[in-house]
Amino acid sequence: MPRGGKKGHKGRSKQFSNPEEIDRQMKAQKELEENPGAEKESSAESDEDSSSEEESDSRKRSGVEGLIQIENPNRVSQKSKKVTELDVSAPRELSRREREEIEKQKSKERYMKLHLEGKTEQARADLARLAIIKKQREEAAKKRDELRKVG
């Protein structure tokens, strides 16, 4: 169902432009067409005025922050450091994961070193197992030799 033209919002009165306002806008437009450089100069002055207003706004806190005077003691503000202030030569702290990873690698290397020297329990068990297998193979080789001699 199509509705008729746009209707104003309930309770809102219609707004009409003042004839003085229309005249002022038309004069400004004519001046702009006649002198385009004049508008640039006046806009530069207005930019300077607006920048000073923006600075004062940035000092004021917006919204609820302006009302509350207490700072949060737990809040840590991020301070940006300049490149000249950074100390590249200083050793950086490792994270917990990195420290644990390095410890794990070192302990693994230590264990492998001891294992190759035969000082760990696993290495001793392996060596004992190898010794038993060696004896069994020697005995089997002797039996084969005896069977060849006899046979």
UniProtKB/TrEMBL annotation:
<dbReference type="InterPro" id="IPR019380">
    <property type="entry name" value="Casein_kinase_sb_PP28"/>
</dbReference>
<feature type="domain" description="Casein kinase substrate phosphoprotein PP28">
    <location>
        <begin position="72"/>
        <end position="147"/>
    </location>
</feature>
<feature type="compositionally biased region" description="Basic and acidic residues">
    <location>
        <begin position="21"/>
        <end position="43"/>
    </location>
</feature>
<dbReference type="InterPro" id="IPR039876">
    <property type="entry name" value="HAP28"/>
</dbReference>
<dbReference type="Pfam" id="PF10252">
    <property type="entry name" value="PP28"/>
</dbReference>
<feature type="compositionally biased region" description="Basic residues">
    <location>
        <begin position="1"/>
        <end position="13"/>
    </location>
</feature>
<feature type="compositionally biased region" description="Basic and acidic residues">
    <location>
        <begin position="93"/>
        <end position="106"/>
    </location>
</feature>
<feature type="region of interest" description="Disordered">
    <location>
        <begin position="1"/>
        <end position="106"/>
    </location>
</feature>
<feature type="compositionally biased region" description="Acidic residues">
    <location>
        <begin position="44"/>
        <end position="56"/>
    </location>
</feature>
<protein>
    <submittedName>
        <fullName>Pdgfa associated protein 1a</fullName>
    </submittedName>
</protein>
